[in-house]
Fold:
Amino acid sequence: AAAAPLTPPPAAPPAAAASSAAAPGGAAAAAASAPPEAAAAAVCLPADAPADEGEPSKPVQTNTSRCWTCNKKIGLLGFQCKCEYFFCAGHRASDKHECAFDYKAMGKQQLTQANPTITPEKLQGF
Structure:
């Protein structure tokens, strides 16, 4: 007729407890107060990961004497695209290489700058 003794819930790992003491109002404190399943789901990013998750970093072309697509020597007359890479004569058009430059947005911006909205002075009184 003896009842089983009640066991306390498992404590947070020592690393989570130490980080919650360092930042009392941060996400670590919220993860430490959550159940262990939720704490395991909260994963920290590595230190070398970029802070913003927007877009990945763009590779830089160091050898500008070769085509970015086919690596063919282009000599002195290489073509530089608006995506800032150099290409041979075969890949110079934006549809021949995977160009990331947005020509549509650039054209729209140029049109809005060249053609400002003109409103007559009579309509401002309404």
